[in-house]
Amino acid sequence: MIFGAGNQYGPQFYNLARMSLFTAGLPQSLGATTLDRKCASGLTAVALAARSIMADDADMILAGGVESVSMTRLPGLPDESWRSQSVIAAEPDAYMAMIETAEVVAERYGVSREAQDRYAVESQHRAAAAIEAGRQAAEIAPLPTEKIVRAKDGSETGREEVNLTADEACARTRAMRRSAVSSRSGAGARLLRKAVLSRRQCQPAVGWGAAHTTSEHVEYTRL
Questions:
Q1: How far apart are alpha carbons 208 and 120 in whole angstroms?
Q2: How many whole angstroms separate alpha carbon 209 and alpha carbon 206?
Q3: pLDDT greater than 90 at residue 220
Q4: Do the bridges between strand 33-35 and strand 2-4 make them parallel or antiparallel, or are there none, so unpaired?
Q5: In this predicted model, what pLDDT tens digit does every residue of 75-119 receive, in sequence order?
Q6: Which residues does 66 contact at the CB level (< 8 Å), separation at least 6?
Q7: Other C-beta atoms lying within 10 Å of the C-beta of residue 6
Q8: Is 91 within a domain?
Q9: pLDDT attached to residue 80
């Protein structure tokens, strides 16, 4: 297993892929690795899994990404004391948040707030249309979980069992470059394997990937 997670602290620390292996009931003999490349963590995990298969390091790898902003952006998390002073001395902006880097990019390349809002609204409309048309039905799975209810000051006021079947709707886009569902949790995974394994087992694949350095294809299946 190779999984990506950007906030590797709180409930997502201590090699989250390995912890997920336990809760999924998979054999403990399987290896599991968690990587952090912020917003590209899940994509990087899938890419590394494909490269490992093409290099004959593995025949089959479960790869994907997971993030729970609502469980990691709690009061006191992250703690600024975690930052390395030697890193800050070498590069003062090393710990700049993604929303701040987005502001730098917007200013550098002249991307206006209006252009960002238009893009955000169009993205929401496309996602809603795809879901309504059933194009993502096979990729959206219900998730039973416990919802923590908090007051405005962040204190916990109660808990309730919920079954998440769809993202909550949002009537308007929020702050600049911030996702309208940034406080939600989500995860996605793909099972990557050598094409020859699918042919032997007579199992169809969802997609194909190939590199110029190898004649062996890598298949992936959505989970």
A1: 30
A2: 11
A3: no
A4: parallel
A5: 788 888 999 999 999 999 999 988 898 899 999 999 999 999 999
A6: 3, 4, 5, 12, 16, 20, 42, 186, 187, 188
A7: 19
A8: no
A9: 85
Beta strands in 59-116 (DSSP E): 60-68
> In the numeric block, which tokens belong to residue 110?
């002249």
Task: Give the CATH number for residue 67.
Answer: 3.40.47.10
Longest dimension (CA), the chain: 57
Segments forming the whole domain that contains residue 2: 1-73+183-223
Respond yes or no on whether the N-terminal peptide bond of residue 78 is cis (omega within 30° of 0).
Answer: yes
Residue type, 136: Q
| 18 is a domain residue | yes
pTM of the model: 0.72
22-44 pLDDT, tens per residue?
999 999 999 999 999 988 999 99
Residue type present at position 167: D
DSSP state of 169: P
pLDDT digits (tens, 9 = 90+) for 116-174: 999 999 999 999 999 899 998 887 878 788 888 888 887 889 998 888 776 554 433 34
Domain count, the chain: 1
Q: Which of 33, 172, 162, 175 is nearest to 97 (CA)?
A: 175
Determine which helix (DSSP H) or strand (DSSP E) holds 193, and give its type and residue range.
strand 185-194
Report strand pairing: 207-209 vs 218-222: antiparallel
> Domain for residue 213, yes or no?
yes
Q: How far, in whole angstroms, is CA 161 from its chain's centroid?
A: 23
